[in-house]
């Protein structure tokens, strides 16, 4: 019985750290309020993908870009 619980525990831990596909959606807003958006698919663990997506946030010459995981 202990062996079964050990194997089930290992399976749960290994599945919780799976690599998945996430969509990173970036929305650009200019000074007049006009918006455009684009999205890309990122593959990895949620914390890593969120950090990579947030690197797209910027504000240059009156244009603000905000990226978020969907």
Q: Would you write up a description of this structure?
A:
The protein has 70 residues and is of the alpha+beta class. The protein has a domain at 24-70. Helices cover 34% and strands 43% of the residues. It has a four-stranded antiparallel β-sheet. It is elongated, with a radius of gyration of 19 Å. The mean pLDDT is 85.
Mean pLDDT: 85
Mind summarizing the main beta sheet?
Answer: 4 strands, antiparallel
Share of helix among residues? 25-40%
Percentage beta strand: 35-45%
Radius of gyration: 19 Å
C-alpha end-to-end distance: 41 Å
Q: Order the strands across the largest sheet as they lie in space.
A: 2-1-4-3
Number of helices: 2
Sequence stretches where pLDDT stays below 50 over 5 or more residues: none
How do the SSEs run, as a string of H and E? Answer: HEEHEE
- The assigned structural class equals alpha+beta
Shape: elongated
The total beta strand count reads 4
Short description:
By secondary structure, the protein is of the alpha+beta class. 34% of the residues lie in helices and 43% in strands.
Which features does this protein show?
alpha+beta
Secondary structure elements and pairings:
Blueprint: H1 2-16, E1 20-29, E2 35-44, H2 46-54, E3 58-60, E4 63-69
Antiparallel strand pairs: 1-2, 1-4, 3-4
